[in-house]
Amino acid sequence: MIKDLINLVVSILSIVCFLVVIYMILLKLTGHSPTLDEITVALSVGIGIMVINIFYTTGKFSSSIEHIQEDIKELKLDLKEFKKETSSKFEKINKDLTIIKTKLFS
């Protein structure tokens, strides 16, 4: 719920930043020369782009972490099965070797 609220707030802030950019472009095209406002627009565009970039990369990152966790679980299961299989094979080999030793040295 908090994540959804944060996403909503960030989306609204991004939209506001882009509306400010559009407003400043319209002012510039109509012959107005806002100098302080141009700085504000540049900062708004920079912040908007950074926020969108951060949310895009963290979204990909969190989904890739989920896939990595699933892969790790599968690897754990595979390793457990492999350990069981190899331990049973080694037990058989050990029994066979003891039988061979007893027959050779008796």
Structural account:
The protein has 106 residues and is mostly helical. It has one domain (2-105). It is 93% helix and 0% strand. It has helices at 2-29, 35-105. Helix 1 (2-29) packs antiparallel against helix 2 (35-105). The protein is rod-shaped and about 110 Å long. The termini are far apart.
How many β-strands, per DSSP? 0
Q: State the helical fraction.
A: over 70%
Tally of alpha and pi helices = 2
Q: Multimeric state of these chains?
A: single chain
Supply Rg.
32 Å
Write the layout of secondary structure elements.
Blueprint: H1 2-29, H2 35-105
Helix pairs in contact: 1-2
Task: Offer a quick outline of the entry.
The chain is 93% helix and 0% strand. The chain is mostly helical. Helix 1 packs antiparallel against helix 2.
